Amino acid sequence: MLLQVSNLTTDLPTREGYFRAVDGVSFSVQAGEVYGLLGESGCGKSVTALSLMRLLGPRARASGQVVLEGEDLLQLSEAEMRAARGARIALIPQSPFTALDPAHRIGDQVSEAIRVHDGAAGARRRGLLRCEDRRSVVWRRAVELLAGVGITEPEEAAEHYPHEFSGGMCQRAVIATALAGSPRMLIADEPTTALDVTVQRGIVRLLDRLRRELGLAIVVISHDFALLAEFSDRAAVLYAGHVVERASTETLLRSPLHPYTQALLACVPDLDGQVAPTPIPGNVPPRYDRLAGCRFSERCPHARAECRGEVPKLRTVGPEHSVRCILYDAVE
Ligand SMILES: Nc1ncnc2c1ncn2[C@@H]1O[C@H](COP(=O)(O)OP(=O)(O)O)[C@@H](O)[C@H]1O
Ligand code: SF4
Ligand SMILES: [Mg+2]
Fold first, then answer.
1. How far is it between the farthest Cα atoms of the chain?
2. Contact at 8 Å (CB) between 174 and 99?
3. Which residues of 158-189 are buried (b: 16+ CB within 10 A; e: fewer)?
4. Does ligand 1 come within 6 angstroms of the Cβ of 49?
5. How remote is the CA of residue 151 from the centroid of ligand 1, in Å?
6. Which of 13, 57, 68, 210 has the fewest beta carbons closer than 10 A?
7. What is the structure's pLDDT at 120?
């Protein structure tokens, strides 16, 4: 297993004390696999991603294990984690527009990411090169990376500033920056959400190509079941900080068991436009760590009194299929 996340629990500081935004999340990702994290806005997907990257600031508390290639990232020193970020695991953050610095040319930003990951070996090599040669070597590599993510006329594009790029081009540049350290694992947080539908398809095709050509493993985060359906191999459905169902994407599509997964599927427009999508009434509540029992009970059409007692356990109901709902307690 390339990445094994076990019982990840993240507490965030708020004015009213700590908020447990991620509560015992577990999943694993194989080399070259696309793994989906699915759930509505406010379920804890981005906090999970930022916890894996240890980017939530010094006051956030994360426990559990995030084992990448045999090493628990949560146990690394700050300096070791800084070295791992980008070189072993990289993040494409939720907004492609804010991920780039408006004051610098695209080529400089990709170059900077290359320099950060060049490390000691690079420094030794650089000692042999004159300053302007070094700059041109890094610049050429930046242009190569931009070409590799499908930016046409990359030499010219590298000279541009982010505001001169479309949303899709910005997202491609952010992906180039994430690839600068040659990581084996990429986390893509809502990689297509801010983009037009036609542009979305291009980004999905790009990520899929990178997976095939570079053998990248990708954790793709989305609120869009349809996106994960065509792209991810397996997925975990998150609701209010809990994994409520985990299975192959095919199983989640064909036989979703958790009422929340079923409700998410009902939100997907039918391909032929025959069946109108049904939105789930209500929202994910804030401060969901204060809820008793099943956190979905307020919105669940099958809720009964017992659902508000203890938190249901995540039970194995089939090969690689787990679900957290009392309706399946007898199945195990
Ligand atoms: N830095 C933070 N401090 C406190 N609460 C946060 C912070 N970031 C996110 N949250 C809260 O944690 C919950 C999960 O947020 P998030 O992971 O961003 O959801 P998602 O990415 O699934 O839309 C939400 O209730 C959100 O308001
Ligand atoms: S435990 Fe109860 S409220 Fe929760 S999803 Fe299952 S049936 Fe619905
Ligand atoms: Mg998010």
1. 74
2. yes
3. beeebeebebbbbbbbbbbbbbbbebbbbbbb
4. no
5. 33
6. 57
7. 43
Quick count: other Cβ atoms within 10 Å of Cβ 133? 11
DSSP bridge partners of 62: 10
The owner of tokens 């037009």 is 196
pLDDT for 96 equals: 74
Q: What's the DSSP call for residue 33?
A: -
Question: What is the CATH number assigned to the segment(s) 1-88+183-278?
Answer: 3.40.50.300
pLDDT by 10-residue block (mean), the chain, 332 residues? 98 97 98 97 97 97 98 97 96 87 96 81 59 82 97 97 94 96 96 89 95 96 92 97 98 97 90 78 95 97 95 95 94 56
Which ligand 2 atom lies nearest to the CA of residue 304? 2
DSSP state of 265: H
Domain boundaries, the chain: 1-88+183-278, 103-181
Q: Quick one: which atom of ligand 1 is closest to the CA of 22?
A: 14
Instruction: Tell me if 35 sits within 8 A of 94, measured CB to CB.
Output: no
Residue type, 229: A
pTM metric for this prediction:
0.95
Which residues form the pocket of ligand 2, taking CB atoms under 6 Å from any ligand atom? 259, 294, 296-297, 300, 302-303, 307, 312, 325-327
| pLDDT at residue number 136 | 87
Q: Which tokens in the block code for residue 74?
A: 């949560």
Cβ count near 102 (within 10 Å): 9
